[in-house]
Write a structure and sequence with these properties.
Layout (H helix, E strand, L loop, with lengths): L4 H4 L5 H6 L3 H21 L6 H8 L3 H7 L3 H24 L8 H14 L2 H16 L1 H22 L6 H23 L4 H19 L1
Length: 210
């Protein structure tokens, strides 16, 4: 029996079931997820389906359902991966001279990174929030997951001497405000309006840190 037989049997058999937790199985899962994630970054979420994901991954939909619990699970993992890319971009932009920056300056760098990021990435992540709002019973985790990923980074921007609750309160304010600006831009709002709002946020953060 060849090593490819388990996938052709669509996940049937104890040997294949055991293989998913192996190093090779985990590598296969990462490969599939990366391919689906790249497809989302280009084509968005609007017509996402397991069939489309299988085409992008170069596999059958049954193979995907072996490695992921459901289409929703696969979508959630792909969106999580895209957010990780966004966070990585922000952290890379923050790396130079980060220790000398105020909270407002750090948020300014993060905003410029969001504002100037590749359109496909921004579109997909905005669509994910839209899905969470449209059908919270099915896609609510796409929204909750965003906060869980972004808040630790924003908390880390806050002055170290602040209390934990204060850091979290300010981080939540920053996240809600920046999210509003990105949605404003996504629906064709005037860029000047978002920039004026961001300037007001910076002033508020300067007062908070003073």
């Amino acid at each position: 029996m060849s090593s490819e037989t388990p996938e052709r049997q669509d996940g049937q058999g104890a040997g294949y079931r055991r293989s998913a937790g192996s190093a090779r199985g985990q590598a296969r899962r990462r490969e599939l997820l990366e391919r689906v994630t790249d497809d989302l970054a280009v084509n968005g979420l609007v017509d996402f389906s397991l069939r489309r994901a299988a085409r992008a991954a170069g596999a059958t939909h049954k193979v995907l359902l072996y490695h992921f619990d459901s289409a929703e699970d696969l979508l959630g993992q792909a969106v999580f991966t895209l957010r990780e890319r966004r966070i990585g971009n922000a952290m890379a932009a923050m790396a130079e001279g980060a220790e000398r920056r105020t909270l407002a300056e750090r948020v300014r760098v993060a905003w410029h990174t969001l504002r100037d990021e590749e359109p496909g990435l921004q579109r997909v992540l905005d669509q994910a929030i839209g899905l969470a709002m449209y059908d919270p019973a099915r896609y609510g985790d796409l929204g909750h997951g965003a906060s869980a990923q972004y808040l630790p980074l924003l908390v880390s921007y806050c002055p170290p001497h602040w209390t934990g609750p204060r850091k979290l309160e300010v981080a939540q304010m920053i996240l809600a405000t920046l999210r509003g600006f990105t949605v404003h831009r996504a629906i064709g709002g005037e860029p000047e309006g978002a920039e004026a709002g961001f300037a007001a946020l910076v002033r508020a953060l300067d007062r908070e840190e003073a």
